[in-house]
């Protein structure tokens, strides 16, 4: 039971919160003191854990998917108070697979794309929930052998794989480096055949190593129920279990989307 | 205590999860069965609540900020498997204040903008935590009188204000409608002076009613610690307390950003 649910149980007993249709449209007057006190308690008393941002900031020199390539400018000021406007107003322009982002099934599978399986169809129940952060041996791609070694139990649905990419700070460097590590085709197949993992987080430009770029994606997207989350910032976090919240933009029609992801400890 | 924290307490007693530097780089072998069982229990046994998406999908006919205006195309396919590419690749282009989005302090305050107070500086501890969804009387903007009537207790830091905009389905209509309701200048001032609210969620195009567009924003942004979240989808949800997760893109330099927001009950 999370904090909100727990509080709600407490509140249902103590406070007659009104529904939208009741006389007082907000919530019942007699309950306000309790609502305030209970929300304060929830804020202060361990109602939430420590939040860890595992998203890379979108900056113009974020590495892009080619040797030496950068994303380039992402944000442009369209209206500017410095130029006499009453407000500042920015415009955003980027590839949907830049920085920390999710892949939708239509990214490398045309049947899924044609069926409308865009990022807006990705399951929020997969994108949010308990996740395991594991360390991959630093001298290898994520092969079948490595997956076997990691021995991730059945029932684990979300895994963030920290690799040599984090140690090499590849996502912090200006310019793409195609020597990042990722899944091989047999590693992808092993995951599909032997685990219940539905969300695969990686700390490199892609879930697939460059030599297996298409083939590993093809394996993951045979069925549309696996969500790769790529370009995560996994520096300086202990391996273990966290609550993951990964919330991509609802871009209708897009086969990928930038996202913000956090862990709560 | 949320589910992850609760589980962690259970686990610390039962399972010696290894830190990143230990012999097995992932997690201890002897703990794997317990990790799997505990994660399964967390998934199935009320470890998380029901997720409610309160974000509007980004579609080309989403209302924009002018009478009859729409956002227009947001996503464009840059590489297409239908045209022989090995993958589909989308590009995203939009104003940072379209659809469900957050304002940063630099949006209507040039001193904050010059000081670099962009969306990437917004506090994740404000954007994530317990929130109160309240119903505003349906015949009014959010004035000082309405704020007094709502009587939101001290200690409440996040409030989602549901208004006539939801009943009129304004965010679902093609084309902007400047008759949406929002905060007046005196409503904004009352909130700043008499509450601890730091996150203000609204169901219209802006946190400020059109006639108070600049003046209400100016009040909210006198100090840079209030976060307006605009264009929320608050249809068909009971008023009450939820856990809110609002995760905007980390757009360095931008004074606003599209975001995905969910409630967990």
UniProtKB/TrEMBL annotation, chains A, B:
- This protein's record includes keyword Manganese: no
> Residues of the signal sequence?
1-20
Sorted UniProt keywords? Extracellular matrix, Secreted, Signal, Stress response
Q: Which Pfam families match?
A: Cyclase
Q: Which SUPFAM superfamilies does this entry report, sorted A to Z?
A: Putative cyclase
Q: Extract the InterPro entries matched here.
A: KFase/CYL, KFase_sf
Q: Does the keyword Secreted apply?
A: yes
Q: Principal localization?
A: secreted
Q: Name one GO molecular function term.
A: arylformamidase activity
Query: What's a single GO BP term from this record?
Result: L-tryptophan catabolic process to kynurenine
Which locations, inside or outside the cell, does it occupy?
Answer: Secreted, Extracellular space, Extracellular matrix
What Gene3D superfamilies does the record point to?
Answer: Putative cyclase
| Similarity comment text for this entry | Belongs to the Cyclase 1 superfamily.
Q: Report the PANTHER family cross-referenced here.
A: CYCLASE-LIKE PROTEIN 1, CYCLASE-LIKE PROTEIN 2
Q: What is this protein called?
A: Cyclase
């Amino acid at each position: 039971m999370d904090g909100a649910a727990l509080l709600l149980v407490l509140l249902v007993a103590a406070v007659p919160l009104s529904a939208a249709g009741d006389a007082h449209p907000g919530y019942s007057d007699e309950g306000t003191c309790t609502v305030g006190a209970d929300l304060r308690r929830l804020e202060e008393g361990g109602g939430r854990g420590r939040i860890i941002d595992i998203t890379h900031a979108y900056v113009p020199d974020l590495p892009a998917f080619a040797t030496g390539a950068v994303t380039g400018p992402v944000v442009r000021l369209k209206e500017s108070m410095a130029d006499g406007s009453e407000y500042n107003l920015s415009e955003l322009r980027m590839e949907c697979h830049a920085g920390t982002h999710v892949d939708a099934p239509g990214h490398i599978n045309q049947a899924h794309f044609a069926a409308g399986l865009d990022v807006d169809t990705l399951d929020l129940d997969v994108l949010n929930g308990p996740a395991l952060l594991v360390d991959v041996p630093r001298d290898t791609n994520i092969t079948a052998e490595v997956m076997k070694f990691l021995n991730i139990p059945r029932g684990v649905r979300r895994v963030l794989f920290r690799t040599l990419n984090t140690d090499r700070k590849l996502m912090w460097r200006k310019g793409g480096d195609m020597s990042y590590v990722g899944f091989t085709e047999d590693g992808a197949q092993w995951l599909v055949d032997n685990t219940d993992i539905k969300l695969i987080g990686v700390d490199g430009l892609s879930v697939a190593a460059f030599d297996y770029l298409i083939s590993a994606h093809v394996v993951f997207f045979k069925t549309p129920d696996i969500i790769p989350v790529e370009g995560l910032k996994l520096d300086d976090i202990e391996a273990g279990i966290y609550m993951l919240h990964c919330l991509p933009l609802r871009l209708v029609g897009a086969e990928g989307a930038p996202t913000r992801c956090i862990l709560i400890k």
